[in-house]
């Protein structure tokens, strides 16, 4: 069930048709999914004080209602490890159209996956799981299934990926926390069912999966206006 | 809505029978049912009179018996009052053969008719369809009787959006020996859709396997179908047309751009344990296999062959279809070797495929099949039976059939489909063993079991 707080966050999407990243992450955290520690900083100082709290390195991403694909315009900087780099990145982003501050967040390592949802005309809400990152659409290593999902559905989706050896520990790399991944996908599918007809499409991309956690590093929620 | 009397009517009224045009669809349907089928058939035309010696009733109301099913083949604009009269006369359902509805742009007429029927709880198939073939009870396909190709009576129900495709499937079913329960052409599927039919035939005692030819689903119709499929315990096979689209729309979401219409269709079918066939030949192979073995296997195949080449081709085909051909351990190999004729001991191979060579006899095939039937390394046997081998007799199909009845493990046979070897094929069929007409086809049959309810 969507709480009042979640509905209010969704309401923010009415103007532009999508939920900006800081709101999207709050929403997903409220729905029980793992997101990084982050702050929405309007000045370099705010970002620096966040860095003092969680420590470097950080990721910085632009917040602008006019920028849906952030990396296309240089709106994502990873591996920021001191105050100078942080200030430079902030100042560069502040020149982008619609600049409304930045997200500064802890940098999470892991295998990049995509977890998504779309409203299919024939089948209603459909969930996608695949190899993520900016190259997701090139490799197209994906599994699809109709929501809501049971655990057996999610296990099968994972099993059907070509990348499954990567997740299970390939050539000495660590096995990712498959239980955490399954939990995230199942909670995501429940969230999608709760959204119902208001949902147009959701991309959690990338979801960073490691031996410890599966964390939503970026999220885009498109709604019907 | 209860569909029972649409498929099992005792009485049928054919509405629109012409006094002057014997080639009219209503006349074709009336003639064949009146002369050839069990349901009692009445002809209706508002003008009345006689067609040959049969009375033409002016309306359904005028018929002295209670009518179960109305088959309507009149101009679209005349249909509404006829359906109203059927409802008032307590007819249990209709097949609307007539075209001239949504397929030609007259959506409003179709929507009005559908809304009325839904409100009245009056089920109808169509419009713009061939309707139902359920021999020996009835046949509403407007194809002259002498042109029909009729499969044997059996336990597969076939449902198709296209009339042409279903007629063609009946031809193929006849050629492959697939037994048919009911064939249904649903046309515009205005009221009764695939999901409704799936629910109905899931509970039909005469149906073991349900096949669908699907062109497209309307809004959320796929979801309905998927839910009905997950509740159905019988094997379901689908063949989808329109797999390709003219490129996805430009969308800003990765998910939406990667989840194309067909990709979603195919994934959801697999999720719900529906077996998807890629073409009409696979559809028929799957139907034949699953009507003999309505179950799921892991896909570990044991191959018995009289020719090394066929064994190698079959292994390749198995692997490319996601099946496994596990090599047998020494113990199993020895067990096979021990039961074969001494003459084979140094020339046969036992590893999988088991190649019995051209020197084998009926008894060698039977003995090897019995060992593999008891082996836990495999869950299905493909038997490549080449009747050119001199030691093989025409009785081998039936002999293996009897053995299969005792052992229970699925056997799929390949026998070249020529008239000369027909008795071998019939021997297998008599014991419910599916017989493929090619090595590849045999592998499709095994694949069907692996895909069936595999989630």
From the structure above, extract its key features.
heterodimer; A: 225 residues; alpha+beta; seven-stranded antiparallel β-sheet; globular; B: 455 residues; alpha/beta; 38% helix; 17% strand
Number of strands of chain A: 11
Q: What percentage of amino acids of chain B are in beta strands? A: 15-25%
The mean pLDDT of chain B is 94
In the sheet with the most strands of chain B, the strands line up as 3-4-2-1-5-6-7
User: How far apart lie the N and C ends of chain A?
Assistant: 21 Å
**Secondary structure: number of strands of chain B:** 19
Low-pLDDT stretches of chain A are: none
Task: Indicate the low-confidence ranges of chain B by residue numbers.
Answer: none
> Which sequence of SSEs, written as H and E, runs from N to C of chain A?
HEHEHEEHEEEHEHHHEEE
Count of discrete alpha- or pi-helical segments spanning 4 or more residues of chain A = 8
Rg of Cα set of chain A: 17 Å
The tally of helices of chain B reads 16
Which shape of chain B, going by the Cα principal axes?
elongated
Which bin fits the share of residues in helices of chain A? 25-40%
User: How is the main sheet of chain B built?
Assistant: 7 strands, mixed
In percent, how helical is the residue content of chain B?
A: 25-40%
User: Most extensive chain contact?
Assistant: A-B, 32 and 27 residues
Q: What structural class do helix, strand and pairing data of chain B support?
A: alpha/beta
């Amino acid at each position: 069930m969507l709480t009042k707080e979640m509905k209010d966050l969704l309401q923010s999407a009415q103007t532009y048709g999508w939920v900006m990243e800081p709101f999207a992450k709050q929403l997903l955290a409220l729905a029980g999914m793992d997101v990084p520690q982050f702050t929405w900083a309007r000045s370099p100082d705010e970002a620096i004080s966040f860095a003092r709290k969680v420590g470097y390195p950080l990721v910085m991403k632009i917040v602008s209602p006019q920028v849906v694909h952030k990396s296309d315009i240089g709106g994502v900087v990873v591996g920021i490890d001191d105050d100078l780099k942080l200030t430079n990145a902030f100042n560069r982003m502040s020149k982008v159209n619609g600049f409304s501050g930045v997200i500064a967040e802890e940098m999470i390592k892991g295998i990049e996956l995509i977890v998504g949802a779309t409203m299919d005309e024939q089948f209603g809400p459909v969930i996608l799981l695949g190899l993520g990152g900016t190259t997701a659409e090139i490799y197209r290593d994906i599994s699809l299934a109709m929501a809501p999902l049971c655990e057996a559905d999610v296990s099968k989706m994972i099993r059907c990926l070509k990348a499954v050896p990567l997740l299970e520990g390939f050539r000495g790399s660590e096995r990712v926390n498959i239980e955490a991944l399954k939990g995230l996908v199942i909670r995501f599918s429940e969230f999608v069912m709760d959204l119902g007809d208001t949902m147009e499409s959701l991309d959690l991309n990338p979801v960073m999966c490691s031996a410890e956690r599966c964390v939503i590093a970026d999220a885009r929620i498109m709604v019907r206006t | 809505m209860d569909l029972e009397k649409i498929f099992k009517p005792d009485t049928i009224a054919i509405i629109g029978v012409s006094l002057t045009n014997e080639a009219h669809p209503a006349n074709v349907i009336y003639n064949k049912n009146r002369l050839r089928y069990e349901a009692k058939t009445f002809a209706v035309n508002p003008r009345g009179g006689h067609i040959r010696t049969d009375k033409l009733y002016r309306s359904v109301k005028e018929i002295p018996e209670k009518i179960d099913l109305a088959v309507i083949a009149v101009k679209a604009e005349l249909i509404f009052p006829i359906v109203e009269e059927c409802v008032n006369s307590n007819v249990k359902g209709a097949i609307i053969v007539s075209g001239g509805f949504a397929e030609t742009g007259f959506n409003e007429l179709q929507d009005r008719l559908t809304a009325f029927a839904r409100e009245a709880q009056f089920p109808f198939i169509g419009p713009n369809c061939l309707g139902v073939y359920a021999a020996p009870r009835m046949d509403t396909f407007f194809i002259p009787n002498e042109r029909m190709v009729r499969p044997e009576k059996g336990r597969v129900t076939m449902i198709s959006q296209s009339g042409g495709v279903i007629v063609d499937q009946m031809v193929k079913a006849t050629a492959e020996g697939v037994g048919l329960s009911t064939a249904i052409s649903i046309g515009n599927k205005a009221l009764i859709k695939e999901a409704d039919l799936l629910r109905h035939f899931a509970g039909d005692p005469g149906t073991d396997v349900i096949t669908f030819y699907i062109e497209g689903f309307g809004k959320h119709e796929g979801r309905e179908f998927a839910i009905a499929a997950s509740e159905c315990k019988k094997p379901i096979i689908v063949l989808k047309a329109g797999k390709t689209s003219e490129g996805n729309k430009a969308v800003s979401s990765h998910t939406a751009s990667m989840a194309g219409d067909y990709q979603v269709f195919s994934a959801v079918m697999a999720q719900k344990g529906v077996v998807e066939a890629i073409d009409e030949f696979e559809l028929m192979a799957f139907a034949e296999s699953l009507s003999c073995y309505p179950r799921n296997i892991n896909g570990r195949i044991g191959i018995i062959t009289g020719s090394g080449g066929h064994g190698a081709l079959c292994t390749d085909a198995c692997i490319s279809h996601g099946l496994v051909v596990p090599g047998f351990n020494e113990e199993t190999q020895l067990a096979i070797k021990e039961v074969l004729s001494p003459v084979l001991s140094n020339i046969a191979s036992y590893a999988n495929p088991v190649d019995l060579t051209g020197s084998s006899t009926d008894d060698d095939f039977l003995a090897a099949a019995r060992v593999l039937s008891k082996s836990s390394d495999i869950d299905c046997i493909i038997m490549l039976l080449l009747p050119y081998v001199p030691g093989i007799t025409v009785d081998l199909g039936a002999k293996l059939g009897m053995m299969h009845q005792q052992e229970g493990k699925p056997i799929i046979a390949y026998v070249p489909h020529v008239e000369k070897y027909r008795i071998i094929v019939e021997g297998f069929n008599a014991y419910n063993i599916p017989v493929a007409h090619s090595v590849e086809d045999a592998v499709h049959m095994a694949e069907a079991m692996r895909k069936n309810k595999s989630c």
